[in-house]
Amino acid sequence: MEEDKEREKVDTSVLAPHVRKHVEVLLAQPIIGLCHREVEVLNPKPSFPSYDKENSNCDRFQIVIPYAGMRIECMVVFQSSGPECPPDFVFSDSRFFVPIDQIEALCSWDVHKSDGLLKVMKEIMQFYKKKQIQELDRYEHLSFEYLCLFQLQNFNEDDIEILVPSDPESPVLFLIRLPADFRHILPDFYQEESDLGDYPLLLVSFPNRDSSRSCQRLYLTKKTQLILGMDESFQLPDEVNDNYLTRYIIALEDELKTKAELAASRYERRRMYFTQFLSHFHRCVVEYDVLYFSSMTLMLREDDFHFILEINLPDDFPMGTPALVFRSIYHTFMGDPIAVAVDNYPYSPTWSMQKVLEETVKFIEEYVHLFRQDDGSFCYVEYNIESLVIKLCLPYVSRRKTDEREGILDEIDPGVSKHVKIMLIVQSMEAQNGDEKKH
């Protein structure tokens, strides 16, 4: 799809009163068609050159409509001198003329019904889509691919947008809505009415109009990417790409279903983990993730020593081990609490949640004694560059040493920060007679 560009949103106050209410309704329901992107209203202008913003008499503007992975532009022209008259429309695609006498919302135009423009634009885009299908009939292979799509279960005309650019060198585009039933598989994540529009889209590009070979790209909402643990760069194997488009779509739907079922299974295990731990630590809970069950924060005490424990579940839980982050409430370094992350304690994905709880609590009780002793002992920096680990222990004497430590870090990492993962576990040390101790 076309890349998003920062555009200044229209100030509806500059529009003529009889135009403004129509535009406000359009912007309140800005999704027309399949694309997850919103309709934009740009460049409001008056019919007369003596334009004064305070008069608010702009009666024409540009609408940008996401369609088939591209943007279709249309000039909408109202008449300030005739508020009762319906608007005119001029499309950027010169091959398409709005069939005014066939658009019901225009034939029954009532300026007092503020949803009039919204209804008209939806009807116009349906006619535009029909025009694109007619253009597609000129290409045998592509027309065949389009007709084959209707062999898919539950597929209908509303599930596809087609764009055949006037330039024969430009690729033909299919934007297809995939019938992935995430609401059924993951009901806890898709409960809101707005989630009805949370469906995957497949953008198919045909570079050669005389061939059915194509390039595909999957589009998922940010929410679905997070839930399924996949991004838009996902691709099926090459041998699947060589098949007909319908076979590719079936394989993709199966893969998405498998991903969703795996996410549902992991989600249930995460919830069981949280239920077990929150029940045990119910008086110690500071906060926890109530939606994805990804992390929780506890305030714990060992005798008179208080500390914060953060439990972070990895994306591949229960296969991956939850990370335990011990945070000091007594010492900080450069404004951040001193912390130690541990993920090599006893754990097995095959254990029951009761067993996981017992072993984790046992480890916490044992490790907190070490953490208490070390809290305030030294500054430890670890550079992990693939398999090479560089460890540097720095004495922590006073705040005056901060700049010196930063200089050492700069020497170790001269301009390769993008390729280096830095884990900083900082602990402090009391000065003894002003002498530094090296570890």
From TrEMBL:
Pfam families: BRE (PF06113). It comes from the Eukaryota. InterPro entries: BRE. Keywords: Apoptosis, Cell cycle, Cell division, Chromatin regulator, Cytoplasm, DNA damage, DNA repair, Mitosis, Nucleus, Repeat, Ubl conjugation pathway. CDD domains: BRE. GO terms for cellular component: BRCA1-A complex; BRISC complex; cytoplasm. One of its GO terms (biological process) is mitotic G2 DNA damage checkpoint signaling. It is found in: Cytoplasm; Nucleus. GO terms for molecular function: polyubiquitin modification-dependent protein binding. Belongs to the BABAM2 family. Contains 2 ubiquitin-conjugating enzyme family-like (UEV-like) regions. These regions lack the critical Cys residues required for ubiquitination but retain the ability to bind ubiquitin. May play a role in homeostasis or cellular differentiation in cells of neural, epithelial and germline origins. May also act as a death receptor-associated anti-apoptotic protein, which inhibits the mitochondrial apoptotic pathway. Component of the ARISC complex. Component of the BRCA1-A complex. Component of the BRISC complex. Binds polyubiquitin. This is BRISC and BRCA1-A complex member 2. The lineage of its organism: Eukaryota, Metazoa, Ecdysozoa, Arthropoda, Chelicerata.
